[in-house]
Amino acid sequence: MKPILTLLLSLFPLGILAGEPSAPTVAELSAEIETLKTKTSAWDKILARLPRISGYVQTGYEWSETSSTFYIKRVRLNLAGDIAPKLDYRVQIEFASPKLVDAYVRYRPFEQLNFQLGEYKVPFSIENTDYVPLKYEFIEYPMALRRLMGFDDVCGLSATGRDLGAMVYGSFFNKKGYSVLSYDLAVFNGEGLNTKDKNKSKDIVARMTLRPARGLQVTGSYYWGEYGSDYLKRIRYGVGACYDEGPVVLRSEYVSGTTGLPTGGELDSRGWYAVGGWRVTPTLMPALRYDTFLENASENASRQTNYTAGLTWQPVRYLRCQLNYTYEDYASRAAANRNVVSLMLSGIF
After folding, report:
1. How far apart, in Å, are the Cα atoms of 128 and each of 6, 28, 55, 170?
2. Is the CA virtual torsion 94, 97, 100, 101 positive or negative?
3. Contact between residue 327 and residue 315 where contact means Cβ atoms under 8 Å apart
4. Which DSSP string corresponds to 150-195?
5. DSSP label at 345?
6. Pairing state of beta strands 68-84 and 99-107?
7. By C-alpha distance, which of 208, 266, 288 is closest to 240?
8. Mean pLDDT computed over 199-224
9. Closest Cα partner for 225 from 207, 206, 204?
10. What are the phi and psi torsion angles at 122 (to 5°)?
């Protein structure tokens, strides 16, 4: 009996070991890793095709001798994504006064030749394209740009400097971080945001930019167009220079134009501005601007000159604070000069 019991006890551990699953082999582990890699790669591809979501809200308060008001300036939602390695898109919606402000597809096969189709900023001047609201040193853009490039245009167009059209653009002679020469050539409807052309002609825009050194650019812009069903003239010229490198910002532009009037005749307008700013710290920047505009170049009484002092403070990435003081000087005796104080906060997401 004792020999049998001894044999059973010796076989018991072997039975337990026989019931346990065997350890995976190297080949099985490699197969599982490859499966996980495939799933991860597929998920990464799906995520890469999803739009990148961003946006901002700009709200503030303005006081002058004639007004005192809180306001909402912009509420923007931006969607952008890649369709293919050299093909991307962007959609931007404005909710403060609901409208579609950007909607375009862009194909970038070469640095020297790229294509863009849809609704976007007209490539005229430096500020209209290079200084977006979250980069701009002031709350309001200069009068010459607003009155002659579709913000609050003398022709009646209010389109935030944008239009519907097609564009080719590119750059040459690349150095570290910048290109020495770049160009933009575009055709537009000439009627503003998300609006079909009201005549058979197309507006033509051309811009050439020279960057002789890092942070320095000199630009010339030309706009020829006809707006409305009566084919009224809309011609604009612009030249400008900008140095924006390190703590220093210096920028000036001159814009002039001829506008056909629905009542007959033509209106010649011109204006220019000069900006100087200093980044005291990465988060704090004071700036000054001289800004003058003649809506009717033949009448000095139509001149308005604004002197603006601005302070921009961005304590964190998602909050931007701006304080502006502007003295508005009117040449016309019928208009009273004004002091305007504006505060604007930008919440960024």
Report:
1. 95, 60, 19, 18
2. negative
3. no
4. TSS-TTS--STTEEEEEEEEEEEEEETTEEEEEEEEEEE-SS-TT-
5. E
6. unpaired
7. 208
8. 97
9. 204
10. -70, 130
Question: What number is the average pLDDT over the span 19-42?
Answer: 69
Are residues 200 and 136 in contact, defined by beta-carbon separation less than 8 angstroms? Answer: no
User: Average pLDDT of 221-233?
Assistant: 96
Query: Six-digit token pair at 295?
Result: 């809506």
Class of domain 76-348: mainly beta
Separation CA 36–CA 86 (nearest Å): 28
Count Cβ atoms below 10 Å from residue 268 Cβ, excluding itself. Answer: 14
Torsion of CA 298, 304, 307, 312, to 10 degrees: -110
What token pair was written down for 219? 């630009």
Rounded to 5°, angle at Cα 134 from 133 and 140: 35
Q: How confident is the model at residue 22 (pLDDT cuts 50, 70, 90)?
A: low
Tokens of 281: 């710290």
Q: Is 285 helix (H, G, I), strand (E, B) or coil?
A: strand
Contact 271, 144 (CB under 8 A): yes
Q: Are 174 and 192 in contact (CB under 8 A)?
A: no
Residue 215 and residue 251: Cα distance in Å, rounded? Answer: 11
- Are 309 and 138 in contact by the 8 Å Cβ rule? The answer is no
Residue 248 C-alpha from the chain's centroid: 21
Are the CB atoms for 309 and 327 separated by under 8 Å? no
- Which residues, at least 6 apart from 302, have a Cβ–Cβ distance to it below 8 Å? 294, 295, 296, 331, 332
